[in-house]
Amino acid sequence: MRSFGLTAAALLLTTTTAPLWAQTPIATSIEAPAVAGAAVILSPEAAALRDALLSGGPDLAAVEVVYAARDYAPIWTRMKAASLTAALSSAERHGLPVERYDLAPLRAEPTTGGLNHQREVAMTQAFLTYARDVNSGVLEPRRVDSDIVVSPKRPDPAALLEGMAETPDPINYLQALAPSHRHYTDLLEEKIRLERLIASGGWGERIPDGGTLRPGDASPRVIALRARLEAVFETDMGAGPEYDETLVDFVTSFQLRHGLNDDGVVGPKTLAAINANPGDRLKQVLVNLERQRWLNYERGSRHIYVNQADFSVQVIDHGETTFVSRVVIGKNKHRTQEFNDEMTHMVVNPTWHVPRSIATEEMLPKLKANPGALGGSMQIMTRGGTRVNPQLIDFTQFTQSNFPFLVKQSPGGANALGRVKFMFPNQFNIYLHDTPAKNLFSRDARAYSHGCVRVQKPFELAEVLLAPQTEDPKGVFERYLGGGRERQVNLEQPVPVYLTYQSAWVDRFGVPQYRDDIYGRDGRVFEALSQLGVTLGAVEG
Fold first, then answer.
1. Contact, 322 vs 316, CB < 8 A?
2. Is 17 buried (19+), middle (13-18) or exposed (0-12) by CB count in 10 A?
3. Coil, helix or strand for 499?
């Protein structure tokens, strides 16, 4: 892993014991000791602290028990206060808005000879806000975009403060609040790299607009392409005007870093990616740091990770990728939501129960023109389940609002769901499935479905999922498949599924990867971060 000053070691606990806030369940209640029959007499300052906590909002009220258990003794010693002030002052390292944390009252010295309750409350409030932000995100995802249906797991305020009160090493404790997952720590290093790159002038001049550049071409635009890639890869590529094999190699390498087909041809998508500036990439990194904070919890020793921005699905086993496939996701009109769930079963040789929206918006116009347009695999049925002959129906009398029929497609090779679907029942009726439309997997951008996720290698995925529960997953799956009839196959151990949208990450080889913001979600997240005060720092402008 590269090091640019902020090492991974500085982001992880150096002890084998998790911090107290991480050990304590969310529902933990910390109670003050009580002596039977004894009234607790508080000093005026202690009573003022208690009252300020109880009236200061939910987080402060929740931590009043921590102070009560300590007889309202101050938690923020000079060392702990200095450690917190330093962490808040450098919050920009994590892409967090420093202005969000009011540092002025924190820098004031404690009152000699007694408890300064205003300062104590200010320190605690700033700490709880920062701890929540750096640990699980500064935004509420659903308020940013209704399609981001992700609920970050927020740390318990009382457990957080109890941990700070007990720790002898506040610097390490504060550093350990941030995610330790390598996707996060590697992005922090990429953030520093981009900031330095911007400060030094970026990647130079853009390539002028024009037609597609192909191997064998020779023009001033090829010279510009060579110069731009030389800056990107930080290597000497010469200055010739010919689109030679060396240039082809670097173009294909660049395409792989950006999720493009590695054909060595600079078409519109490749040109746009090459011409992107480091500031745009830095915005992506800031957005994806926030996304990683939303996912800052144990994701499961085995889990399925769908990256919509990358049009890919992976099975992760104990941190290693054991399966990967291209996918097709929802078109912009039918965007695939971001959410987390559990896969419980698969259905082999599935029947497709056509959603009413598709039946009325797409199929009904065809039926009006030709009652036999849907073919023999499609069945038109009454709501009671009786199959009807479409040739005997006058479909011109129906509209989208009064269409009285159900449509389903029998199992088989022509079925829109293919031969297998993978189920994690959810409110959006989204799942992974096979498809007969294999040609779409060859595209750079693969947003063509009605919202579900089509998998290029569904049989291999089925076998990987069955492997923990049978010695012959391939043979078992083929027997189910060959039976021809619809069959539900339960997973003995449900598998967590994450439908996420990571447009920037660093791969296991240390190579930064960037993808297009196909749904515009990154733009909305960055706008929300900007409103809270997140900027591109000193390099902005």
1. yes
2. exposed
3. strand
